[in-house]
Write a structure and sequence with these properties.
Mean pLDDT: 95
CATH class: Alpha Beta
Helix content: 25-40%
Organism: Achromobacter veterisilvae
Order of helices and strands: EEHEHEHEH
InterPro entries: BLH_phosphatase-like, Prot-tyrosine_phosphatase-like
CATH topology: Protein-Tyrosine Phosphatase, Chain A
Number of strands: 5
Enzyme class: hydrolase
Strand content: 15-25%
Keywords: Hydrolase, Transferase
Domain Beta-lactamase hydrolase-like protein phosphatase-like: 6-113
Length: 114
Amino acid sequence: MSAPIKPLTQNFAVAPQLGPDDMADVAAAGYKSVIINRPDFEGGPDQPTAADVSQAAQAAGLQVEYQPVVGSAMTAADVQRFAELLRTLPGPVLAYCRTGTRCTNLFAASQQLG
């Protein structure tokens, strides 16, 4: 896998941008679900789309949710949706964005909801 996975808890980890070719490795590493927090084309036309990654994730047996969040404009609704995904998706869950920081911030904020 091209990108490093950074576990934050036993059941949740973050990663920088992943692509379709990474999904089999994500599944092999034991993850059951992927949350895509990077909006399509945020990094330009060469960025893998959520649809392409989702298709590869499903083919690898992963559940996947596309929740695009603009890093500089994270909202309370974004945090609530992220918390809901963490409650409902089978774990362990891997979330990714451009660097992993946005997912880390979403996770930290979601933990404050109780």
